[in-house]
Write a structure and sequence with these properties.
two-stranded parallel sheet, Integrase catalytic domain-containing protein, 7 helices, RNaseH-like_sf, single chain, mainly alpha, extended
């Protein structure tokens, strides 16, 4: 069990179940006022802002309706830092895009054999992708 567990205080945390489960952790009350305290959040906000800036002026006014499309684009695009898309890192396979299917280049994996075999192959692929991303990030950090 970690010595400190940062959490946002809300009424459920005061429930008896949580109190017992977290009894060995030191409780630190923190208030998250801005995203500036969270580097990952701040970096993603900047990336999203940059994506929104690429929209033509007439579409910028409709940015809330376009947000899901922008997030899909972000999640299915290979990132320079990891050499993998967030989708691939999360699900262990390349995203199946409509354009790939229309062009006949979809590379979906058929599930042949027992489901347990597919799960084992999928797990092996995830480990390979994570290892590759970690090596890429470590290489970038050392330069």
């Amino acid at each position: 069990m970690p010595a400190h567990l940062p959490i946002i205080t809300f009424s459920l945390m005061a429930a008896r179940g949580w109190t017992r489960a977290l009894s060995e952790c030191q409780h630190l009350d923190r208030m998250l006022e801005t995203g500036k305290g969270n580097g990952q959040c701040e970096r993603f906000n900047q990336t999203l802002h940059d994506l929104l800036r690429t929209l033509p002026p007439e579409k910028k006014r409709k940015w809330p309706q376009l947000l899901l499309k922008l997030l899909f684009t972000y999640n299915t695009t290979k990132h320079q830092s990891t050499q993998h898309s967030p989708y691939e890192l999360m699900f262990g396979q390349k995203p199946q895009l409509l354009v790939d299917q229309l062009l006949g280049i979809a590379d979906g994996e058929a599930i042949d054999g027992a489901p347990e075999d597919w799960v084992a192959r999928h797990k092996e692929h995830l480990v390979t992708v994570y290892t590759s991303a970690k090596r890429q990030l470590e290489g970038m950090a050392s330069t």
